[in-house]
């Protein structure tokens, strides 16, 4: 029998979570680089360049790839011959590993997990508890797969109870565009087919633990229906022209993973869960010989990508920008922002609305007139950092507040991730505001442009507080102009037509 010590298990979980916070899987880096080399849309190519540069910076600096350091999911296969030398339950050991990883003083990770989700939504402060799936299997080892899944991609998960005669490919092709770009493509799609509703969802999530190998499959050819589906779905989704960050282009997905399970004769459950540009997962096996620690990759494995400021890039001074200047910006334009901006996410917007409605007004220091607000919840700084990784959050979550905030405060512009919904676009058009997009999956790179940071309101909200950032040459793209024209509508439409008409070669 194998004896697994409590400290070995906890140390291995903590080590894996720290490791995946700053090291992309090598297969993912290679796949993004191949897509970058192949891409014809300059905007999508630029977004992938930022993702690759950010990935290398994080590997060098050992800081999070994304400010959203995720909800932890763990898959455990525990051998029947294993004996535990432990006083804690397996779940408690997993959560102690999570706690130690997220509170590590050299690389503090953002705590995003809220207790009482339908009520007070209180932050647990240490990112526990994890979501744990355990299975007892023959053998004398403990097999562990660990992932940290960001909310932006997790929120785009889909589940359908199809009829047995329905086409799975057709459902995926119809569903992916409804996910928008908040899941930060390019990434992977995990699909679970069969079983029951909850079984399909778990299979979809577990499938994302596998390495990217679609090109090897394409070379050797499919040997069963699941492998045929992987290729059919990948090609069909990439023909949609959604592209990196939803800007339009040749690569939307890097791989499609599928797990299946027998199901009822009357049923065809299908779950689809995307993995984002901050793909984070690790695998280790405990055999009783001690902790299973991750092996750092070679930094030479990262491509040497540079991001060049072209002649068409506009420099914008946020301290003096006017509505007339903003009105000259066109969808797809690249801007470099310098000056001061405020930040605010869901909780801050809700509090601002409540204060305005009550007649109390906004706190001192929160004057939004003619200013820009950045939708971000940064990671706490360590050592000499001004701020930790500070990439954008999904902007559609703020759509329900947009018209009110623009009307009541005179806010000029917003910065976030991915597309805006119809309500957000209509409010932007109505008030002649603008919406700018920063690249999701480039959080550490963005933080390098922030030269100062201070909390100005709602400190009790932690990462959801309102900060004032001063930035120098922060790269963004114009996503929605003052006329309500959205690059997330025009870009994919243009590239879908090009792919169809010119039979462009997809990755």
Structural commentary:
The protein has 15 helices and 19 strands. Helix content is 33%, strand content 24%. It has three domains: 1-150 and 281-287 and 298-307, no CATH class; 152-277, no CATH class; 314-492, Fe-S hydro-lyase, tartrate dehydratase beta-type, catalytic domain (fumarase, Alpha-Beta Barrel), CATH 3.20.130.10. Helix 2 (26-38) runs antiparallel to helix 3, helix 6 packs parallel to helix 9 and helix 12 (399-409) packs parallel to helix 13 (422-431). The chain is α/β, with parallel strands linked by helices and 507 residues long.
Instruction: Name the strands of the widest sheet in spatial order.
Output: 14-15-16-17-19
Termini Cα gap? 48 Å
Tell me the count of domains: 3
Average pLDDT metric: 95
Low-confidence runs: none
Count, helices:
15
Summarize the structure.
The protein is α/β, with parallel strands linked by helices and 507 residues long. It is 33% helix and 24% strand.
Tell me the layout of helices and strands.
Blueprint: E1 2-5, H1 6-22, H2 26-38, H3 42-61, E2 71-79, E3 82-85, H4 90-102, E4 114-115, E5 122-123, E6 131-137, E7 142-149, H5 151-154, E8 158-162, H6 168-175, E9 187-194, H7 197-207, H8 214-220, H9 225-238, E10 253-261, E11 268-275, E12 281-286, E13 314-317, H10 323-326, E14 334-343, H11 346-358, E15 372-374, H12 399-409, E16 413-416, H13 422-431, E17 434-437, H14 443-447, E18 450-457, E19 466-480, H15 487-502
Parallel strand pairs: 1-3, 2-6, 9-10, 13-14, 14-15, 15-16, 16-17
Antiparallel strand pairs: 2-7, 4-5, 7-12, 8-11, 9-11, 14-19, 17-19, 18-19
Helix pairs in contact: 1-4, 2-3, 6-9, 11-12, 12-13
């Amino acid at each position: 029998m194998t004896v697994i010590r409590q400290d070995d298990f906890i140390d291995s979980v903590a080590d894996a979570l720290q490791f995946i916070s700053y090291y992309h899987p090598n297969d993912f880096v290679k796949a993004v680089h191949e897509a970058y080399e192949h891409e014809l849309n300059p905007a999508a190519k630029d977004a992938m360049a930022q993702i690759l540069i950010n990935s290398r910076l994080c590997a060098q600096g050992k800081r999070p790839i994304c400010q959203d350091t995720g909800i932890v999911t763990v898959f455990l296969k525990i051998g029947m011959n294993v004996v535990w030398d432990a006083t804690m339950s397996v779940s408690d050991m997993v959560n102690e590993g999570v706690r130690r990883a997220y509170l590590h003083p050299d690389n503090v990770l953002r705590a995003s997990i809220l207790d009482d989700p339908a009520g007070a939504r209180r932050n647990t402060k240490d990112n526990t508890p994890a979501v744990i799936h355990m299975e007892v299997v023959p053998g004398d080892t403990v097999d562990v797969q660990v992932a940290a899944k960001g909310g932006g991609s997790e929120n785009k998960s889909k589940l359908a109870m199809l009829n047995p005669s329905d086409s799975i490919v057709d459902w995926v092709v119809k569903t992916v565009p409804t996910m928008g770009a908040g899941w930060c493509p390019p990434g992977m799609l995990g699909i679970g087919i069969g079983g029951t509703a909850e079984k399909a969802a778990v299979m979809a999530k577990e499938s994302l633990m596998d390495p990217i190998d679609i090109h090897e499959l394409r070379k050797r050819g499919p040997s069963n229906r699941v492998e045929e589906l992987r290729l059919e779905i990948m090609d069909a989704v990439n023909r949609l022209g959604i592209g990196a960050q939803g800007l339009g282009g040749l690569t939307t997905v890097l791989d499609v993973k599928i797990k299946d399970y027998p199901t009822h004769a009357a049923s065809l459950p299908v779950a689809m869960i995307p993995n984002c540009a901050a793909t984070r997962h690790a695998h280790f096996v405990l055999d009783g010989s001690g902790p299973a620690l991750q092996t750092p990759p070679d930094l030479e494995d990262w491509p040497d990508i540079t991001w060049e400021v072209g002649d068409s890039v506009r420099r914008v001074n946020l301290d003096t920008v006017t509505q007339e200047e903003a009105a000259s910006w066109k969808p797809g334009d690249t801007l470099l922002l310098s000056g001061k901006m405020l930040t605010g996410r869901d909780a801050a917007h809700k509090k601002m609305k409540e204060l305005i409605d009550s007649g109390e007004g906004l706190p001192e220091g929160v004057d939004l007139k003619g200013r820009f607000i950045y939708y971000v919840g940064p990671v706490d700084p360590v050592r000499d950092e001004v701020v930790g990784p500070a990439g954008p959050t999904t902007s559609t979550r703020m759509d329900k507040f947009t018209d009110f905030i623009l009307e009541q405060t005179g806010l000029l512009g917003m910065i976030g991730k991915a597309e805006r919904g119809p309500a957000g676009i209509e409010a932007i058009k109505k008030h002649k505001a603008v919406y700018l997009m920063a690249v999701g999956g480039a959080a550490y790179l963005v933080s390098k442009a922030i030269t100062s940071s201070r909390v100005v309101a709602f400190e009790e909200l932690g990462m959801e507080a309102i900060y004032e950032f001063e930035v120098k040459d922060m790269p963004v793209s114009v996503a929605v102009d003052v006329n309500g024209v959205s690059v997330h509508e025009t870009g994919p439409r243009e590239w879908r037509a090009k792919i169809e008409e010119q039979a462009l070669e997809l990755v």
